[in-house]
Amino acid sequence: MLIKCPNCNAQYEVPNDIIPAAGRDVQCSSCSKTWFVTSLSGKKSTKDKVSKYESLEKGNLSKFETTESFLTDKSNKEVDRDVLEILREEADREIQARLREGDGEDTTKKLSNKKAINKKALPDNIEIGTTLDEAPDTSATIKGPSKSKITSGKIGFIIGLVIIVLCWAIYTYDASITQSVPQTAIYIDIFKSYVDYMQIVRDDFIKYLIQAIID
């Protein structure tokens, strides 16, 4: 006998002797809908759907779940315990199969998400090689300016020392220079006058500092 749920249209195939002539209350295992079924309604449903379901196997149909009212025969006729046990086992297998399908889908989604994250986290070999080739050499950048600064500092110190020595020699040996090169006499006199003036200014400034410290 083929029974159809009026709420979700689920199909159930049950033995013909389970539904008595007086009818029974049955419950859908998919939506928990309860309704009253008679043997006539079951035959009518089977007759209407026989062309659609005669090629289907029994294992492909939804499992049947009975209620307490269904298990109790209104005509005081006990339902065969073996049939009831088979129905319960089939309902349990369907529930476990649905749970396994749900767990499998969740696991597949998690694995795909992890693969997508790993692909985004690391670049491919070409990108890594390009990054390494284009990376600037920080050690060379740091060493370059330091060497040039040291070299320029040495050159500046040497030039300053040479200028000081030349000024001292001109101021000290002015007579010898003017005798050897008379054209430089006027320039040497100006230079000596400037140096003498700076010495006077220096002496006055030192005296002022000493006086300020004493006072």
Q: For the residues shown, what is the average pLDDT? A: 71
Q: What profile does the largest beta sheet have?
A: 2 strands, antiparallel
Taking Cα atoms only, what radius of gyration do you get, to the nearest Å?
56 Å
User: Overall 3D geometry?
Assistant: rod-shaped
Amino-to-carboxy terminus distance: 128 Å
Question: Helix/strand-derived class?
Answer: mainly alpha
Could you give the order of the helices and strands? EEEEHHHHHHH
% residues in beta strands:
5-15%
| Poorly predicted runs of 5 or more residues | 42-53, 55-59, 61-65, 68-72, 121-135
Total count of strands: 4
Helical fraction: 55-70%
Strand line-up in the sheet with most strands? 1-2
Treating each run of at least 4 consecutive H or I residues as one helix, how many helices? Answer: 7
Number of domains: 2
Give the SSE layout:
Layout: E1 2-4, E2 11-13, E3 24-27, E4 34-37, H1 39-53, H2 68-71, H3 81-121, H4 125-134, H5 138-172, H6 174-180, H7 185-214
Antiparallel strand pairs: 1-2, 3-4
